Amino acid sequence: TVVQRTTVQHEVPRYIGSDKDRVRVVVRVRPMSEREYDESRKPQKVLHCVNENSIIFDGGQHSRRFTFDSVFNEASSQDEVFQYCGIKRLVDMAIEGYITTCFAYGQTGSGKTHTMIGAQGASIFRMDEQYRVEHLGIVPRSINYLFQRLRDKTLQSSSPYYIRVSYCEIYNEQIRDLIRPANPDALQVRGSIEDGFYVENLYQTYIETIDELLTILEEGELNRAMASHKLNDTSSRSHALLSIQIEQDVQESDDPNEQMTRQGKLIFVDLAGSEKVKLSHSKGKQLVETNNINKSLLTLGTCISALSDPSKRSGHIPYRESKLTRLLAESLGGHGITLMIACISPSRLCENESMNTLRYANRAKNIENEPVVKTDSKENVINRLKLEVRKLKDENNQL
Ligand code: ADP
Ligand code: MG
């Protein structure tokens, strides 16, 4: 059941220079797990990938066909997903100065972390070379591609690129720093729809090599898992946001005071599990938790619904109602470029959640962004220097 892929879609930049860019949506169906085989006695699939763009949901009484920018079936490899999902275009556009976002959506166990980070989650980084080459997910592959592109580009360009990274997790409507988990500050989201939202006091660091960035990714994943272990598997209920900012000074005037910085961004979001949490089983702290998690995911759903409906699109979009949607405002109906990867299990045991995921993904297809490159003033160059000083101080303190 290997699907022949005929086009390398990222090489056809659909909209550069024009004003609209539809959110790109791809679906990945993971193989049935042993448990799913066992529990359904004979393997019963409700999902069938028919070609590289379509998938049929066959729930017995009703069946429905969905079409997406790409559909990856159970046999798709990590490399195939990376090559054809459209992420390379996002990396290229981030280098050009756009804000780009790739997010993984789906119920717990559907393959989000597998697709983003790799088989085995954070442990992938400690596997041998051969295993890693085959099983690494989209994020490390994109990092590799980014550095490859920058090496090519830097040759042609006079001013260097700077890469600034932050990594955080939204759990229970609270933001945790995944690079500096001991960061005691109560991290708040600041900013506005017009100027963009950001997390105040979130640790950011400039990195120079692939290895530095991969180490941050690995440690961040471990920090996420550790916190999750303490708090009874919160990772399925938290959203992780890795932000890779790519900066380049562009001299638009001879006056150094008017020097501008272009700031592209590549954001990877591993969303919380989309399954419905049964509220009747939740009491006390647990109840607050599910409500809050619902708040971020529900608000995301509300925003996606509104943005995908032409009659509501220009009206009020409730970005402000959750931390996640504030941070993703630029990516959904904003000035960014966005890719959504919906992950699903083909098993009959998951049919309701899978149907929900397909409907959600189907709606997201209609969202339009208006990508623009933003350049920023010299102030950012100064901020960068301040950060570098902070980094040096940190390193000194660690000695
Ligand atoms: P999620 O992050 O959505 O909760 P995971 O990525 O942790 O789900 O996946 C759940 C399990 O299924 C893991 O054991 C993972 O290795 C396995 N899995 C997910 N997707 C695939 C795939 N495409 N091929 C093989 N195994 C997969
Ligand atoms: Mg996960």
Automatic annotation (TrEMBL):
<keyword id="KW-0505">Motor protein</keyword>
<keyword id="KW-0493">Microtubule</keyword>
<dbReference type="GO" id="GO:0005874">
    <property type="term" value="C:microtubule"/>
</dbReference>
<dbReference type="GO" id="GO:0008017">
    <property type="term" value="F:microtubule binding"/>
</dbReference>
<dbReference type="GO" id="GO:0005875">
    <property type="term" value="C:microtubule associated complex"/>
</dbReference>
<dbReference type="GO" id="GO:0005524">
    <property type="term" value="F:ATP binding"/>
</dbReference>
<dbReference type="GO" id="GO:0007052">
    <property type="term" value="P:mitotic spindle organization"/>
</dbReference>
<protein>
    <recommendedName>
        <fullName>Kinesin-like protein</fullName>
    </recommendedName>
</protein>
<keyword id="KW-0547">Nucleotide-binding</keyword>
<feature type="binding site">
    <location>
        <begin position="106"/>
        <end position="113"/>
    </location>
    <ligand>
        <name>ATP</name>
    </ligand>
</feature>
<comment type="similarity">
    <text>Belongs to the TRAFAC class myosin-kinesin ATPase superfamily. Kinesin family.</text>
</comment>
<dbReference type="GO" id="GO:0007018">
    <property type="term" value="P:microtubule-based movement"/>
</dbReference>
<keyword id="KW-0206">Cytoskeleton</keyword>
<keyword id="KW-0067">ATP-binding</keyword>
<dbReference type="GO" id="GO:0051231">
    <property type="term" value="P:spindle elongation"/>
</dbReference>
<feature type="domain" description="Kinesin motor">
    <location>
        <begin position="22"/>
        <end position="367"/>
    </location>
</feature>
<dbReference type="GO" id="GO:0003777">
    <property type="term" value="F:microtubule motor activity"/>
</dbReference>
<keyword id="KW-0963">Cytoplasm</keyword>
